[in-house]
Write a structure and sequence with these properties.
heterodimer, A: alpha+beta, Glutaredoxin, 7 helices, B: alpha/beta, Ubiquitin-like (UB roll), Alpha-Beta Plaits, Rossmann fold, 3 domains, 5-stranded mixed beta sheet, 4-stranded parallel beta sheet
Chain lengths: ~170, ~575
Amino acid sequence: MLKKISKLPFKGTPEQEAGLKAVIAECAGNKSLLMHVMQQAQGIYGYLPFEVQAMIADGMDIPLEHIYGVSTFYAQFALAPKGKYNISVCLGTACYVKGAQAVLDKVQAILGIGSGECTDDGQFSMEACRCIGACGLAPVMMINDDVYGNLVPDQIPGIIEKYRTA
Amino acid sequence: METVNLKINNLPVSAPKGATILEAARLVGIEIPTLCYLKEINEIGACRICMVEVKGARSLVTACVFPISEGMEVFTNTDTVRKSRKLTLELILSTHDRRCLSCIRSGNCELQKLCKEFGVDDEQHFEGENPRYDFDDSAAHMVRDNNRCILCRRCIAACKMQDCAVIGANARGFNTHVGSAFEKDLADVSCVSCGQCIVHCPTGALSEKDDTDKVLAAINDPSKIVIVHTAPSIRATLGEAFGLPLGTNVQGKMVAALRRLGFDKVFDTDFAADLTIMEEANEFIERVKNGGTLPMITSCSPGWVKYCEHYFPQLLPNLSSCKSPQQMFGAIIKSWYAQKEGVNPADIVCVGIMPCTAKKFENKRDHQNANGYPDVDIALTTRELARMIDSAGIYFKHLPDEKFDNPLGEASGAGVIFGATGGVMEAALRTAVETLTGEELRSLDFTEVRGTKGIKEASYKIGDLTINVCAASGLENARKVLEEMAAGTSKYHFVEIMACPGGCVNGGGQPVQHAVVRNFVDLRGARAKALYEADAAAKIRKSHDNPAIKQLYAEFLGEPGSHKAHELLHTKYAPRPKYK
């Protein structure tokens, strides 16, 4: 999958910036620590937007394009922030054979976003995940910490609507 | 040197220890095909076209990176090897835009050549889903068509070699593509327009932005006076496009071809190179005498100038304020020459034939329109000129040798060596030393700054001054010199920087030579030799002795560095952001 770059404006705080700068200060001078710095940065910001990658590029003296290349190579790096409500649809084996793909398609159709993306209003993000250990309830999805099981696609609009109006 | 003995296709070979199979094979005249391999800058063994059989090895190995060992037996042309190469080519073709007829590199494409050699005739062998990419024609100087990209990563290596690294491999697997950070267009990243990616590309994925139609339209417009001038290095490289050996000086045939194409006047940028020296040597002397910013850095290479603006903006005061010869030429054509000929500068179309893609960016910069019109209207690369000559049905090899028009076709040997790294420095020294000492130089050859090494330095005693000079080419080399300057530890007074390794002879607008030539032949040296020979044979070898230059100052400009000279021949720079 090609990762979509989020158009949501960057809202970093001074605390987050100080946190990233501290990580970079520890690692600058050893370019092989790039992945580590990127993981820490994602831990701080939740994703790796342009502003964050540029900070890493300058701090580590590594070309920005190289960092972007790494961030688009590995599935673990996100280019979009998590929404207020993050929906994880399980595509593990049990959920998959019980029709999780149709659930996932429905979520994407309603929100108009793909896996790893966030809606323009910042309310919803979604991703496909692997087994969350609730195979007995397959197919399963989670919205933040709430678990929904035994899903059929027709239930999805109602569930999402609940959060939209919450 | 320790040597290793092995056999390649049953032929005994002795090769230096540490050599690769590819290099050892070359010693006995066996060529192993490569696509991704570029000596020293892209040794990644990724494309799998150079696979060979090694006796006792479990599988085929990549000859470009596999080191030789004692007693090794290599086979480069077995059935298995040929089948492997054919399969690799078919797989590459499966996602390649195969419309060869409309491709700019048709006939000079490394992929096409290999397909022919290995009998790949079923181009639909692996039909299936194809990635499709939009063109990126955002930059002033080039076009990227990823549909023709084979992901060899040579352009990425070239960009890294130029210390820019604004392109790289994005995404993974089937979606892998060459692009910039956050998929920005080339015009929106800190690309310096050097074009080294283009001359390193094996296919038609990267090419200069073609401006030949604009030139033809101007030639066909009877109200326009179309004036062409050719940069120093073009005479040393244009012949390659017509099958002449590397380093053939084709100045006479080039002039004849340009006349036959219909240009009204054919002049020599070397004249403006001499003019650049007059202004630059004067600027240097002024800076030395008046305590100006030192070291002074040359400003002829627009790729270098843009690099400085993006990456070392703090050193912009060190950059000479002189325009490049291309732009000086245009400024003089549309002022002095227009006055002399009694023509309206608005009717003049000034075309530069350049070794350089960055010249297409340079002529659109601010402060490059001294007379209220762009100094230079169109900048063509050597490759574009070659295509124009071909399509006009001009049989280049059989052309007579003709001479440039006058007075702006007159140049010194100092002007012609501008095209090689160290040439501007040497030319400037010839003039600066004689101006400072008031005595004639005994030898005009400053050999210390010649040659294709990335960084060359020398020290000269001029009167009671000691001048430390440096000539760097290739931006990775330039960076080393610049970092010292930025740190305040540089010992130099005068520095020449050329964006392309080896200078303009190896510019991004020069005829494309396949990797096999780049890897095993001294391309830069062979091309530069033609320029140094032209200098050695020249009657006039110092810019300040060029009679046309003397006439220009006497009639029009006054003194070097005069107010008028500043208006016409000098320019300004501004910092550019590293990211947008």
